[in-house]
């Protein structure tokens, strides 16, 4: 089993408040780990510290066999890409889609200038958008389409880990489904390794191979998806599952 990510004893404090408490987590290559837990349990903090957006107070993060230290190189930053609930967080509204994609491709030296257009069109096609979208601006797209563009931008730099923090939570249910289907397709086509955060167990069921449950800054259960949904181990996981509204029979 090859591990894409290892998190060891990771602790983050905001002042006197411990948001992450000695987290241990392994993420196998080419799998999707669904991270669930109630609001405030520390899911986004874990995502941000892995992505290098905040520094841990204690602990280690290894990407492959390489330890990621507080000050990351450009190459290390590139390897972990993040998608947020609000796609606008990663899309500059003043830039066309062409500019957004080419900036990422060139900054990280993924292709040279002569190949940027072809690669940008390929990326749009991967996320099921038309090539003519290149000359449009983010505001000309729907929320679901903007999320697809944010996904294309994240994929453009060929990350070894994609972190998706509630990427479908702001979308209508039907749009949400189509973005989840896209994740499914991309995972199969590109062998992605994904940390997918959601408070929605239906979404977690749709995307995950493994499920991790957070509560009050601690990981209380890590299990295969099938085990988690059928035979959760932790009392809190059972509470989460029993709180899911059921359709009347
Ligand atoms: N910059 C910050 N300064 C102080 N406290 C913070 C900061 N960011 C988060 N927190 C606190 O840390 C805890 C964990 O927050 P976090 O956003 O990681 O949880 P979450 O599980 O992602 O929640 P949600 O599902 O609501 O996004 C919360 O109690 C939050 O109020």
From TrEMBL:
<dbReference type="InterPro" id="IPR003439">
    <property type="entry name" value="ABC_transporter-like_ATP-bd"/>
</dbReference>
<keyword id="KW-0547">Nucleotide-binding</keyword>
<dbReference type="Pfam" id="PF00005">
    <property type="entry name" value="ABC_tran"/>
</dbReference>
<keyword id="KW-0067">ATP-binding</keyword>
<feature type="domain" description="ABC transporter">
    <location>
        <begin position="5"/>
        <end position="241"/>
    </location>
</feature>
<dbReference type="InterPro" id="IPR017871">
    <property type="entry name" value="ABC_transporter-like_CS"/>
</dbReference>
<dbReference type="InterPro" id="IPR050319">
    <property type="entry name" value="ABC_transp_ATP-bind"/>
</dbReference>
<comment type="similarity">
    <text>Belongs to the ABC transporter superfamily.</text>
</comment>
<dbReference type="GO" id="GO:0005524">
    <property type="term" value="F:ATP binding"/>
</dbReference>
<protein>
    <submittedName>
        <fullName>ATP-binding cassette domain-containing protein</fullName>
    </submittedName>
</protein>
<dbReference type="InterPro" id="IPR003593">
    <property type="entry name" value="AAA+_ATPase"/>
</dbReference>
<keyword id="KW-0813">Transport</keyword>
<dbReference type="InterPro" id="IPR027417">
    <property type="entry name" value="P-loop_NTPase"/>
</dbReference>
